[in-house]
Amino acid sequence: MNKKILNEILIAIENKKPIALVSELKTGNQCIVYEDRVSGLLSITDDIAELARASLSDDSSRRNGEVFIQVFNPPKRLIIVGAVHIAQPLVEIGKTAGFSVTIVDPRGAFATGSRFPNVDLNEDWPDEALISLGVDNRTAVVTLTHDPKLDDPALEVALRSNAFYIGSLGSKNTHLKRKERLKDSGFDEHQISRIHGPIGLDIGSKSPAEIAISIMAEITKALHAK
């Protein structure tokens, strides 16, 4: 592999930038396809560049004729605001689905290692936590506290980001009140419509585990609809 190409890949991985490495199988020439440009020794058609970007979206490497497209995506992340009962099964389901999971809750009595073993726990205020974590298009943000003082600041940061999924727990009436508060904070209807609320696919969920399943199903649907 060309040293310049290798360095570009390492830098992209370090900076959590999604890239696709396109290799011509006959010659070994390669180029890197970014979201907005192409770099390298291999000249490719617009169709191959778009296929590489589609591969990034699908999170799947593939062969197309005489070229091989290798995907280097940042890890999928699930940020859960609120260390509540539903968060416990959601953490486990999220991990099983290949997500790196972080619990955000400034209430120390909730976000404990005994309740959430082997999970990244962040006790900063939700908006500060999300800013420091750096929400990107590989990130799903879920708010579960039912407390506007905690959920709303997190939602405001999420709505200003390119998170691929934003969901918030609560009834239809709760969500209507949430939308009004966000409008008062300067968000328009189009922006607010990104929030999945009430959260989760409608599968008749009752228990915390069932609700967690419905949330993860909706996150999965959103991930593959990008």
Structure description:
This protein has 226 residues and is of the alpha/beta class. The protein folds into two domains: 3-72, no CATH class; 77-224, NAD(P)-binding Rossmann-like Domain (Rossmann fold), CATH 3.40.50. Helix content is 39%, strand content 20%. It has helices spanning 3-14, 46-58, 87-96, 126-133, 148-159, 172-184, 189-192, 208-224; strands at 19-24, 30-33, 38-40, 62-64, 67-72, 77-81, 100-104, 120-122, 139-143, 165-168, 195-196. The chain has a six-stranded parallel beta sheet, sandwiched between helices. Strand 1 and strand 2 (30-33) form a beta hairpin. Helix 3 packs across helix 8 and helix 4 (126-133) runs parallel beside helix 5 (148-159).
Give a quick precis of the structure:
The protein has helices at 3-14, 46-58, 87-96, 126-133, 148-159, 172-184, 189-192, 208-224, and strands at residues 19-24, 30-33, 38-40, 62-64, 67-72, 77-81, 100-104, 120-122, 139-143, 165-168, 195-196. The chain is of the alpha/beta class and 226 residues long. Strands 8-7-6-9-10-11 form a 6-stranded parallel sheet, with helices on both faces. Strands 3-2-1-5-4 form a 5-stranded antiparallel sheet, sandwiched between helices.
